[in-house]
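INTERNAL AUDIT FORM
Audit reference: QA-55
Scope: verify that the stored structure record matches its stored sequence.
Auditor: D.O.
Record contents follow.
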Amino acid sequence: MSDAFVFKPTLIRASAGTGKTYQLSSRYIDLLAAGEQPDRILATTFTRKAAGEIQDRVLHRLAENDATHALLIKLVRRLHRLNVCTLDSFFIRIAGSFSLDLGLPPGWRIVDEVADQRLQAEAVAAMIEADGPQRVIDLMRLLNPGELRRSVHEQIMTVVGSLHDRYREQPDEAAWCWLIPPKKLTIEQVHAAIDALGDIDWPVTKSGSPDKVWAKAVASMMSNARMGDWEQLLKQGLIKKVLAGEDKFNRHDITDSMRESLNPLIAQARAELLEFHASKTRAMYELLRRFDVEYERLKRATGAMRFQDVTHELARAAGDIDREDIYYRLDGRIAHLLLDEFQDTSFEQWRVVQPLADEVMAVAGLDRLLFCVGDVKQAIYGWRGGMAEIFDTLEHRWPDLDVQTMDQTRRCAPPIVDAVNRVFGTMTMNPAAAAIAPAAAAWHDRFNEHTAFMTDSPGYVRLEVAPEPDDDEKPRHAVLRHAADRIAEIVEQCPGRSVGVLVRTNRAVARLIYELRHPDRNIDASEEGGSPVTDCAPVSVIMSLMHLADHPGDTAARFHVQTSPLGEIVGLTDMHDATADRVAYQVRQALLEHGYGPTLDQWARKLSPVCSRRETMRLNQLVELGHQYEADATVRPSHFVQYIAAQRVADVTRADVRVMTVHQSKGLEFDIVVLPELDAKLGLSGREQVVVERDADNPVGPPARITRYPKDELRAMDASLDAMHAQTAMQAVRESLCVLYVAMTRARHALHMIIPPAKRLGESYAGIVHGALATDSSALAGAVLYEHGDAQWVQHVGPSEPAAAPREVKTLTPMLAASRHDRMIPRQAPSQLEGGTSVDLNRMLQLHAGGGRAYGTGVHERLAKIEWVDASTDEPALKYESIRAALRRDRYPADQNVSVLRERPFAVRLDSGLLTGTIDRLVITREGERATAAEIVDYKTDRVEDVEALAEHYRPQIEAYRKAVGVMYDLPAEKITAKLLFLSVGRVVEM
């Protein structure tokens, strides 16, 4: 690199819209101009879209200036070496080079959320089987005292789904099981304490009769204590007064003698409830630990990994992998780190990146550059592990960092900037923030006053109150209905302008899409990231057919299919059970023989004549999803239904109105932003299962302590639980304020905020906005509380953004000649190898479905249902004892771990091309998770005259099977046996 360039390591705190992507692309171009090679620069961010934007920005800026065309050509020639990517993709590259070192399973792959959910469900089932149902039920009863209202499996899935990542972040038992309850009273001491209450002179009225309120309170306390209902005892008003240190209850003094009489019962309640709380936390930990064992076992057996699994394994090995080895295996040294959106970095991601960053900072300057940009005010991903505290520690870790701030927004018009400053710059004075003062003050300290770069840009901000709901209407639906009306007005007044409708929940997205597309409004609106393809009738009925294939007794699905055009296509013309069974079987058979993509394509072609243009587009998208699903397809069509429900596919044309969650809007901007869901409380949602405590000396490390979420009464009894709850709540409030900041700063010209009518908005998003912008006005239905700027702003910027002037495009000489090789790998099936000759796939397109083929198919279908043959097996094709003996379990040692795979499909890459096929029966012997031997069984239904000659005819096919099994299970040829079973003559031939 040229000596003319010296780069100072830099950390930029960049507020929303201030041009951080421009700054990062500038550093990248500066490095290229200094003579640096692209493969020595690593630029990371958190989404593929953001990575693409960085790369596009670099390329466009180089293309815009004639002086940088040489750099552009240099970069394009090495585009394949470009390291502009997400952290996840960079980690996968490292893990792919260190699979054995990390202990990753052979052939590991990244699976989607649906496949991972199925794996979790299998792990839960395996855990129940291993521990015994009663042991697991006991744990669940401990976690959920009282009646189990849902299935045990379902409740466990809820717990592990929300807490397993937390467990993996901190698996140390001591961090979970730290609470030591105080010693309890004996039964005799408890009874004595209860009896003592009867000896107290409780308050009386002026007439000398017992005060009824006091008498009732004392009677209730005595009853609670006798019944052991300690939680209810602590809810008693008199006890609350005592715990709060107050002197009066119902206008009478609480004397010292009264306190002394109540203290033993309060102490007993504290001991009982803390012990119960500790046991519930231990049960939670034990459940997570046992699940983790089975979950990890299954992941290693199947090779199914999530992105966070890869990060976790790299983080565990971060100190053991030599960086020089990393550079060698990645075929390039990382000399410069450009880190984007750093406030969203998780603890484990930082553990992986930190050694690389330390190495760069060790010699930062002429030869190395660390450039880090982020904004803790936009840290909205704490729920998935993001830790903004890491960003705050960098300038202390590396004092030589040049710390800069950017608070001049190039996105927002001045009225929007003014509103943002009023909401977030006056946080400590906002009456709605009084109850969350510590968190509000901490957030306020991070906020600098914003300024607008485009001081003359027209804009408008409006805060209004929705009308009262109709008699039978939910309040939140009334707000969203009003928001849809307002959006319809905006679209009419501002044609061609982009409108971002930002909400907190996916439920609100669905409701708004419904309201906007309602015939009364007919607004073309799209969901960010797309919507499920099931939002049209033809796809919905195909999903019912898939469900029916797994559950032919489901009469609702049966009726849906039978009354649709698809019913006639698949032969479901009545509601009879026999018809449903036949159609279900035919669907499953078609999926097994042809696959999901081709089968769906066949139905889609037959349905298209009765479909609209949009419905046809959705059917085509369903077919594409079917092809994508093939790699992870199971034998259960209902799994495909789950897969489709989880997919989001965008319409081909993007609407001007886009509805999305605030989290999805990160990195986007719109001419107009509408915020219609501001009623939620700031901070904890009420659905939290645990609270955590971070070590003050190591705030970016794993949690020091974790415990089950403590109720109010319990927090009042234990200072440590109260402190943990306060720390967790404070973090949640900070993130809530970040969500509000991100939402407000997506707007370029107009910001519309809609809040519900209420006498008191409290510590909600609506309360914060109202308290800052219109604290003197009541939130009365239909009122406009705040307006700022020009409501007719659109007239001053024209009907649409000015189009970029056309420019001459220079043609560059191609740097690589087009390859003449076909992109498709030659495919071959083992059955094509029969007779020892190779047959090209194209010659197999004409299939002859004669009677022999139909008979053989039927036999194979029936045998695929048999795992082991025993005395009860009644199958006509197994009439010979020699054949039955070959399929018995007792052929294998009883102590061996043996599993049977029937109709095992495969696709393996060999030197000759891609070998695909299906093995009739494959028996795998394992030691632990590793396969140690395999036996291939192939059924033959041919009419046989010369068995030996026919066996030789099939030898190439069996050898192909042997190669495939060797590749799939990493087995040498001598560990793979094979046999042909000639069913018509009862001969078993070892191959």
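Auditor finding: record pair retrieved intact. The chain has five domains: 10-104+308-406, 112-303, 452-530+656-695+726-797, 533-646, 827-990.
Action required: none
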